[in-house]
Amino acid sequence: MITLKNEYRNKGIDYFTDEYYEFISKLQGYKGSGRKKESYYVLSENFREKGKALYECLALELVHQLHCQLKCEYCYVALDSKSQSNKPVPANDIIRLVDQAAEVDPATGKTLFGQIAFIGGEPTLHPHLPDIMQYTLDNGLMPLLITNGVKLADIDFARKVCLPGSVIVTHLPYLDAEGDKELDQLTKFPGYSEILKQAIRNIVEIKKEWNALGEDFELVGDFVINKQTEKYAFTVFKYCRNNNITPFFERMRVSDDKRNLHLVPEDRTLKELLFQIFEYDKEHFPHLVSSENANEEELLLKKIEYLITPAFANSCTMSQTGIHVKYNQNGFGEALSCVGQLISHGNTQSNTLQEIVRKKQDSRIFMEQKDFIAGPCASCELYDSVGCEGGCRGNANTAFSCGRASDPECLFIRKECRTDRTIMAPDNCNHCPAENTAACGIKAQTV
């Protein structure tokens, strides 16, 4: 049940904005349904049988994180990483991990993971990607391809990866002549906007072909909201809604090297955009916003949900129920809770996925996150109600080098608090249950 925690304000621990308290006061006594771990999904649940897997998503960087045709200014990968290696991960290594992810737990009858996200760098640069995606499907798992779309401008290649039962996540053009020029500049790839438009045309055509055969895959449009892109966002969002593209409009994550800090959008502008998107959905796609008999509290919760990170109405629970396998200057195989975390749970070159998951469980700060999260997120009444659950854990760790810290991108935390380490990541490492706290920046600073 949602209650107003006035004791925090009375004690002078006033983390939150006036708008937060206004919303909470309107929701007092309301019993929301919350979210349960069994129903967590990344990006979409359209093609996944609920309850099929023990854990959500295994993300695999098929090529080095810098191996990409684009050099986007707003990319969260530090561009000064040591290695420029473009060697793909051997296909046999990926097949081995797919096999392990598809292993069935005899006690529950569930596979270890339900989805495998193929990422990079740019995963389409892996020469065996189409075969790997098909193998994933053949093993009963859902492949998610996270791509910049460049190679999908070739319809023959697009047909090889746009497979029924998969999810294709690609960037979106800005649908504006001036914006197209800006997109080419932002990505440092001349002609990218036209290539991307052709890629989307190809995907839509292939989708129609499969639909005619009674099959389908999902197309997700990824759009990064920042100071340079926010002016195109609403037009692009409407394009998605009217062309059967699932919009994934994510707020820009600050890069590991902090080079894109100047692109972080202003709170007011961002909030206006997200509420504009909410109102559009409420008017034109009401089934996405509420049930037919929704009350005021339910509508308000949904409106609030559009403000959460990392993307509107799309909370991310990767840190709790997923594994992200890196390919960086240290090679391929380091297993983290998500792309933005530091604490390693093992390495796929020497550990099985079962061993890696067990080590993640032992760390507890991810699997039992609610008990160990620190800062304002620990006392937020919206933690469960809108599926936020601490916001983007990658944002939090990038900002404070602490897996327990609160998300500095939360629009409900007062701006002056968001950069204050003593508030967002309290120094209590001695109580941290992570086995490998030496990997934590705060631990290193306090030892």
UniProtKB/TrEMBL annotation:
Keywords assigned by UniProt, alphabetized: Iron, Iron-sulfur, Metal-binding, S-adenosyl-L-methionine
InterPro entries associated with the record: Aldolase_TIM, Radical_SAM_PqqE_MftC-like, rSAM, rSAM_sf
Keyword S-adenosyl-L-methionine listed: yes
CDD domains: Radical_SAM (cd01335)
Domain Radical SAM core residue range list: 63-163
Entry coiled-coil feature ranges: none
UniProt keyword Metal-binding, yes or no: yes
Top-level taxon in the UniProt lineage: Bacteria
Protein name, per record: MoaA/NifB/PqqE/SkfB family radical SAM enzyme
